[in-house]
Amino acid sequence: MSQPSDEALLERFAQHKDRKAFDTVYNRYFFSLCKYLGWLTQESDTGADIAQNIFLKLLEQPQVFDTRRNFKVWLYSSAKNQWKNELRNRSTRAGHLKTLTASDTYFTSELEDKDNRLKAVFAAVNQLNEIHREVFVLKYSNGLSIQEISEVCQLAEGTVKSRIFNALQQIKKHVSTRKTPQT
Amino acid sequence: MNSMNELPEELLDLLAQKSYQELNATEREMVSRFLSPESYDEYASLVSDFQQMDQELPATAPQLKLPEPQEKRSKLYQLFTYRIPAYQAVAAIFLALVLFQFSTASRSGSVTDDLHTLGKDTASTPSTYGVQKVGTPLSEDDYPEELIFNL
Lengths: 183, 151
Fold this sequence. Notes:
The complex is a heterodimer of chains A (about 180) and B (about 150). Chain A contains 10 helices and no strands. Chain A has about 180 residues and is mainly alpha-helical. Chain B is mainly α. Chain B has helices spanning about 10-15, 25-30, 35-55, 75-80, 85-115.
């Protein structure tokens, strides 16, 4: 039996206050959104906070999402916009540099016990510039289609594909240069 | 080899699903237009490594609990805490004031009417307040002398 779509579930929640429908969508996407934001912001806490805010807003005001739209695109676009707002607010605060420095260790600290190859791949993704990292993560971590990514990032589909491939090339280069000194 | 702008989405999906060995003939043909078998395997391996690590990440993100909706309050509580727009409250107060003014004015009007009827024979006229007005029956004999004028 096929599962109900995100949009159908959210329509049910908006019209009948069906909390189970909302929880299903929440469980489908919360971690996925946290991961995307973690990669984008390089800070797990900020990512989780933004994800939480988005779902809380959706819980309190279901009408913020137009059920005729694609929920995934709306969700990731909203998350990205909130992160941009957060960055704008931070630029006026003195703690910006400190936060970024502290956050650098988020993903790498999780990798202590992993083998070198995996570490190298992860570090390589971490070191991609934001435009390449974002499309790569949306594709291979969040599983969005090229069309969905192009809507979230507001890019042409051809650009998205070439950026993903470019990211792969950079990762490959980074991993092979890390391997070289050991061999 | 074709441009990466024309890269089919299917190829990017295959990188996350199959090694070159696992591709069927059609897929191999499509891949060969863009990548060598070695390059394909290398990229597929990078994607697989990334996904392997990425799948272990969720444990590091805290599961935040959403607040449960508030319990249903009693009907009486709901009645007393029922919210209405401010303009409705203002309109209700205004209406109450107008009605009060109107009732006060109509009451004083009836008193004036009563005063107007004083000169008339009101012996059998019921008053606004429900009290029967009773006239003083004066016979010719009982008339006070000072009120009698002989013209």
